[in-house]
Each structure stands twice: as C-alpha cells, then as structure tokens.
Amino acid sequence: MQSQQFTPDPRLPGSTFGFKEMLLNGQRLLVHEGDTLLFHSMLALLPEQNVGLFVSYNSGGGSLARYKLLQAFLDRYYPQSAEEEGTLPSTGNSDGLDRYAGSYWLVRRSETTVVKFVNLLRIFNVRVDQDGYLLLPDHTFQLKRFVEVEPMFFRQVDGQGTAVFRTDAGGNIKHLFVNGLPWIPFEKRPWYDSLSFQYGLLGFIVLFFLINLIALPIAGLVRRIRSKERQPQPFVPRVIPWLVLAISLLGIIFLIALILEGTSLLPYMPSPGSIALLAAPLVIIALAVGLVINTVFAWSRRYGSAFDRSYVTFVALVALAFVWWMNHWNLVGFRF
After folding, report:
1. In terms of domains, do 128 and 33 share one?
2. Using one digit for the tens of pLDDT, what is the confidence trace for 10-46?
3. 294 is in which domain, residue-wise?
4. 175 — phi, psi (to 5°)?
C-alpha cells in the first residue's frame, strides 16, 4: 500500500495504491486529497515517522489552506536542514528556455462533454520571466519560479518543488510533470488553445457584439431622420441589420448566462436552465447561416454601398468565429 507503484520520472516522487508521494522538508509523505465544490480535505502520512495529519475545510479557500497547514506542520516538527535545502543558482539563465514556454492544459480533463469549457480557467501559461527563471505551476497550481538544474529537470527557486518535461517522438516538448501531481501531467497545447488566443478572440467578439448593439440602432435612427421620404427597401437590406442585432444580443446573453450557470453544466447534474442555455448556440448558428446567405445575396445584387457590404461580411465572419469558439468548447448541442 505504501510502496511506489508509478513515477513519471525517477527524479520525481510518484504514487502508491491510492496515495501520491511528496517530498517536503526531507520527508517522504503519502498524501490523498478529497474535493468537491463545497469542501477540500487532505490526509497526509509520514510513514517513517508514524505520524499522520488529516484536515477538512468547508470553504473554497481550503484548497490552498490545507497545503499551508501541512507546510507549517512540517516546519514546526520536521524542519529542513541546510544540507537538505541545497543550493541553487542566484540568478536565472534564459538560454534554451523558450522551448518550454507555451500554454499547458491538465491531461485530466474532459474532451467530449460540455465540461471542456472549464479548461478556460485552467490554462497555465508557462513563460520565462525577466530574471531568466521559468514560471511553472506547482502542486497547488500556483505559478512559481523554477531554474533548470539538469536537462529538462527544474527546481523551485523559493520552495521545494521539482518539475520534469518530456518530449514527443519528434523531440518537441509535450508534457510537464510536477512534484505532488504524479498522475495529473500538463500537456503543451497548440497556439489556438493558448491563453492569449482564446481570451483575445473571445474579448474581440464580445467587444464587437457590444459595438453592434450600440451603433446599429443609432445608425438606423440617423438614416430615418435624414430620409424625408421612407423608400421601401428589398427584403435583404431590411433583414440583415436585424440578424446582426439578434446574433450580437443573443451572444452577449449566452456568455453572461454561461458564467452564471457555470457548474450546473456538469454532466452529472444538468439543470433545466443549463439545457435551455445550450439551446442558444443552435439559434445563433441558424442566425449566422441566415446572415451568410443574405450577405451573399447583398453582394450578388449589389445592395447598399461597398462599405455596407464589407461591414456585413466582416460581421458574418465574426459570427462564424463565435460559432467555431462555441463548438471548440463543446457548447454546441447538448454534450452531457
């Protein structure tokens, strides 16, 4: 039960049957956590000392508090000696660290259900800081400074964490393993799953939708005031602004509701609200298809000015980008 059964790398602690190993203050610990949305618990055993510690918190803050308590307990009763701490370079060295930089996801995640969108909150952006250290997530998923002491092996500068990278068959960085997380490696993701692209794209879409909601009604009002006689317009020019407004308004409402509904989208407890929420992307897709069709008609019949047609084309592209974004995060359909 207490013997190591797996380790991703001989230089890292691994896991036993039901426990993960950790090395803190020169002590080998066997740790097992328990988590829900409402509580965070931890059982930590020191086999060589015949000592154990159990703690449970009934609040979200317990996720980090349990590790702080464990470290304080070890510092009080099993302080680390200077020999065990070792020495690290006083300054960082950024040479060759760029290959490790990028966005990483936890391998322990959902890929086929709506829960995939939770990964938006768990994208870790590994990067080199201004002092030449690599910023990596530790076992508490907090970004800390690490220095490379062996090829692809890193030690935490202001702590006891260790980390190892692994390459794929082509020699490219593929996985990151951290002390204290033996069975939850991080996976390096392509550019379109990066923090900058995902949040940048979503931010641009939201801003563009808000601009449409403000600008289009004002533009329509100005045109009515300037037009002394209301000329009947063909169907296509009349319906396009309504399609743009509908997509923009429904898109904003959907994103706000997505944030509020949040955890109710979990597959083991879908609520009527979450089912209704996931109907919105289907409506948005129908509206986007209608906008694309009418945009094609607008160009073929030369409705409006070239600027008007170009703007509508750009709106259609943004709407399609939003559809791609929703489908990428399994928000299209009812993927429970």
Report:
1. no
2. 999 999 999 999 999 999 999 999 998 789 999 999 9
3. 193-328
4. -130, 155
